[in-house]
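Dear H.,

Thanks for agreeing to be a second pair of eyes. The structure we're designing against is below in token form, covering all 907 positions.
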């Protein structure tokens, strides 16, 4: 066990609070629903970037390269000024949804370079130009561009020409769980000497204005003449920020500047934006001369020669240090923690992985760990503050009024802390997969989190995301929990049954919600709306259809078949521990058959399987009852591949009640089982398979999926078939034309906001599910099943080899090709050739279907962090054998795993 693994072990059961301090600040608190008190309809403009420096936030904090405690009471981050900017750089700038020609978009260059799971070592890079930051130029240029044009980026403005910028590295190293060393290194990449102001800033989140803390906390200069900021908080206790050298200490309060924003008197003498006024505007009266407040900074002025660097050192600790805070031990500890991080990741990286791929994998994990955020949102209080009674008639006029039970104040894995600084249910499930490789306990905690009573709706619905908690995300929680459980069991030799049982019991409520709310006709064909896939269909699937009637969705129905399978598989595992779960395992088998029979009824014409095309499609049910198959070849039709589960060969002997009920149900309903794989026929190693697709259907769907003129792109499986480039799908109704083209890049339609696109690009989460399905099916079919890949190539592959090939295409998005270029960066010469840029990796939201260029949110390491899992898995020399070992061979009663009360605190 290496040092970081030992820290993780010490943190189990809260013995040592190694995770108490971490990168829990948001990258953007402004422009969020939580901070919107406009009546819920003008979120982006109510609290803008321009207002953010002057207005105290209500629910959270943001900052550059920041950290906080896990209750975000005390925050630390970096502020910068280059002597030319119109404002002090305290937070990242980006365009709002209405300003960008492809929706909201951060316009900064910052990189999460390294982090251990306990945050014992972290490293962050921000690139700061010497010249004034071109705020208005970015707004005007992007606003002038159409959806058909590329975005106007910060590099396009010329502020980085001639390398006239600073690389500002921020590093953290923990001496103990609460003794945090900070090192800031500013490197001048330009050819001329340049000056820079660095203001490491410490402040308290404003809770006192809302009655949470009757006695406000305080920051003060520790002793006259010493460069130490002392922090005192009723709940957190005492902390001291030791500042190396002789910086000027500045103090103000984290209070709103009403005079600047609204022309009204200020409630406090010193306000949030005082450091901007003091440093940029030269207003000496802006800061508190008594050197007390709730926000403080150490002001360092450095002049850095070309190619040289300046270093600032700080230490945040609860200890009163009697010796030197910055002696030899300071640098020694940083080096020790960096080496321990190297050891930790070396143990996770297969020997066969190249240095380039190892770098990509490590930065992917770093992004996952940096993208944790303290997320605070008490909807009942927010509604009350908006003067809305959630129990009164007509309450639904305000966003999320039906979620007054929801009260969140937790560390949550975010999709992207700037573009999506709020959790999304299905994103979070995908996050758990790579997180499980570095921090299994945190991965489990994340899955449990959204199922507890403060999140889960009384109806059983899982909250989608703060823009509309009532939207519906695909039900992938059961799969993620099963994956994490299996991996944890393999790692520790025993399964955490308490975790699995808790998740299963909560998901029973959610499954019931799906059945009751999203099967409007009661025919086992499900709706669900956009289901996270935004504009993938002909219509906006979350809006009223222009034709009237309703959609029966191939994806919604396949998701539910998959949900049944995963719940059944969990029940089978729990039945080894408690026989009562056998009846539930049988129940999910029966429900799966009902869904399978509805998806393909054998040619009645009211189902979703098209026998002629060999593909699944959505069905439009018109008001007169007519069924119209919407023949869009998309991921919607590929999801049936994912609905496949392999069971161990001893299931018959071990679970006789399950087998008896399965046989009896199949005897009474033979038509339901005749269109799926025979669940009683043994495959490789005697394993059993429950799958929507028979072998013949599987081959037909795979032929389409693996055709390079359809779904198989050079960088993974496309969201929509390339077939639609030449043959768009067109549907006409009521004098209108609705169409789906192949759009491999940014969306050309404003459907569902227009800031993401599911009409051709490659998305990592869906590719990962398909890879999982292929590996799963290989466990049943083995080497006997081969398919042509790519279709028409003459090359025959096993299903494992197909999974491996798709993974190879996905990960090469980030890897250098034969010319040394990374497809993710497209034609950007700065990223492709500059030695100070080319090894920095951004993990975008999705990727161009033909070129692999990154699109959408630039820091969505959340589910694109799955790249690390793929590199780790398929980088193994024994990947095939390893995958086969993961397949169920025989089951044993699992050990109890976690202590009985581990999840008792959740509710």
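And this is the sequence the design step returned. I haven't edited it by hand at all.
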């Amino acid at each position: 066990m290496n040092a970081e693994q030992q820290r993780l072990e010490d943190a189990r059961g809260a013995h040592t609070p190694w995770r108490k301090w971490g990168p829990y600040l948001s990258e953007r608190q402004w422009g969020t629903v939580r901070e919107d008190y406009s009546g819920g309809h003008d979120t982006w403009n109510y609290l803008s970037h321009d207002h953010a420096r002057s207005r105290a936030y209500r629910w959270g904090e943001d900052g550059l390269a920041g950290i906080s405690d896990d209750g975000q009471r005390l925050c630390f981050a970096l502020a910068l000024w280059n002597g030319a900017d119109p404002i002090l750089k305290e937070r990242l700038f980006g365009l709002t949804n209405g300003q960008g020609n492809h929706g909201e978009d951060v316009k900064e260059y910052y990189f999460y370079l390294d982090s251990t799971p306990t945050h014992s070592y972290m490293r962050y890079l921000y690139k700061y130009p010497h010249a004034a930051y071109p705020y208005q130029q970015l707004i005007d240029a992007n606003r002038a561009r159409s959806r058909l044009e590329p975005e106007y980026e910060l590099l396009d403005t010329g502020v980085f020409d001639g390398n006239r910028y600073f690389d500002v590295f921020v590093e953290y190293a923990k001496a103990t769980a609460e003794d945090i060393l900070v090192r800031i290194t500013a490197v001048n990449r330009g050819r001329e000497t340049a000056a820079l102001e660095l203001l490491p800033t410490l402040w308290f989140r404003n809770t006192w204005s809302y009655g949470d803390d009757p006695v406000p906390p305080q920051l003060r200069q520790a002793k006259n003449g010493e460069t130490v900021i002392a922090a005192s908080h009723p709940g957190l206790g005492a902390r001291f920020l030791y500042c190396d050298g002789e910086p000027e200490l500045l103090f103000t309060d984290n209070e709103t500047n009403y005079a600047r924003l609204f022309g009204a008197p200020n409630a406090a003498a010193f306000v949030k934006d005082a450091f901007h006024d003091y440093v940029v505007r030269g207003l000496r009266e802006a800061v508190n001369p008594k050197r007390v407040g709730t926000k403080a900074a150490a002001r360092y002025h450095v002049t850095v020669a070309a190619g040289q660097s300046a270093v600032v050192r700080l230490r945040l600790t609860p200890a009163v240090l009697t010796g030197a805070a910055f002696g030899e031990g300071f640098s020694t500890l940083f080096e020790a923690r960096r080496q321990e991080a190297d050891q930790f990741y070396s143990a996770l990286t297969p020997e066969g992985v190249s240095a380039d791929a190892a770098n990509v994998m490590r930065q992917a994990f770093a992004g996952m760990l940096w993208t944790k955020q303290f997320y605070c949102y008490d909807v009942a209080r927010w509604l009350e503050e908006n003067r809305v009674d959630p129990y009164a008639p007509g309450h639904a006029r305000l966003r999320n009024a039906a979620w007054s039970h929801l009260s969140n104040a937790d560390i949550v894995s975010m999709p992207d802390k700037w573009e999506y600084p709020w959790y999304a249910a299905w994103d979070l499930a995908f996050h758990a997969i790579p997180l499980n490789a570095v921090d299994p306990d945190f991965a489990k905690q994340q899955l449990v989190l959204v199922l507890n009573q403060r999140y889960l709706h009384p109806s059983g619905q899982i909250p989608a995301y703060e823009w509309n908690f009532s939207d519906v995300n695909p039900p992938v929680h059961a799969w993620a929990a099963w994956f994490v459980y299996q991996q944890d069991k393999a790692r520790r030799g025993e399964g955490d049954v308490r975790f699995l049982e808790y998740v299963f019991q909560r998901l029973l409520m959610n499954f019931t919600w799906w059945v009751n709310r999203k099967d409007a006709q009661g025919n086992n064909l499900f709706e669900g709306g956009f289901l996270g896939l935004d504009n993938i269909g002909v219509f906006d699937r979350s809006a009223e259809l222009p034709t009237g009637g309703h959609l029966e969705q191939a994806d919604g129905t396949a998701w539910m078949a998959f949900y049944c399978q995963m719940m059944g598989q969990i029940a089978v595992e729990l039945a080894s521990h408690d026989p009562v779960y056998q009846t539930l395992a049988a129940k999910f088998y029966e429900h799966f058959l009902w869904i399978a029979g509805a998806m393909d009824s054998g040619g009645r014409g009211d189902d979703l399987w098209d026998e002629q095309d060999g593909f699944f499609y959505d069905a439009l049910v018109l008001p007169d009852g007519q069924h119209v198959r919407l023949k869009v070849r998309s991921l919607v039709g590929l999801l049936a591949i994912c609905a496949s589960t392999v069971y161990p060969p001893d299931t018959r002997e071990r679970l006789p009640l399950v087998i008896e009920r399965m046989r009896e149900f199949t005897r009474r309903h033979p038509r339901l089982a005749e269109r799926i794989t025979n669940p009683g026929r043994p495959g490789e190693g005697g394993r059993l398979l429950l799958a929507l697709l028979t072998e013949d259907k599987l081959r037909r769907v795979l032929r389409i999926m693996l055709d390079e003129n359809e779904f198989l792109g050079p960088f993974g499986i496309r969201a929509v078939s390339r077939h639609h480039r030449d043959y768009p799908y067109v549907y006409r109704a009521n004098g209108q034309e609705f169409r789906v083209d192949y759009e491999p890049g940014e969306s050309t339609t404003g459907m569902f906001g227009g800031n993401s696109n599911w009409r051709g690009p490659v998305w990592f989460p869906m590719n990962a599910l398909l890879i999982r399905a292929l590996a799963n099916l290989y466990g049943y079919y083995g080497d006997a099943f081969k398919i042509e890949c790519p279709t028409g190539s003459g090359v025959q592959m096993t299903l494992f080899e197909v999974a491996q090939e798709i993974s190879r295409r996905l990960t090469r998005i980030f890897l250098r090709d034969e010319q040394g270029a990374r497809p993710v960066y497209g034609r950007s010469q700065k990223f492709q050739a500059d030695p100070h840029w080319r090894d920095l990796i951004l993990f975008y939201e999705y990727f161009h279907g033909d070129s692999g260029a990154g699109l959408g949110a630039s820091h969505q390491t959340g589910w694109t962090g799955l790249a690390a899992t793929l590199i780790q898995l398929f980088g193994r020399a024994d990947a095939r054998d390893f995958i086969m070992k993961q397949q169920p061979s025989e089951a044993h009663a699992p050990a109890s795993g976690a202590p009985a009360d581990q999840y008792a605190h959740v509710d």
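Two observations from my side: The longest strand covers residues 194-204. The longest helix spans residues 554-575.

Warmly,
E.
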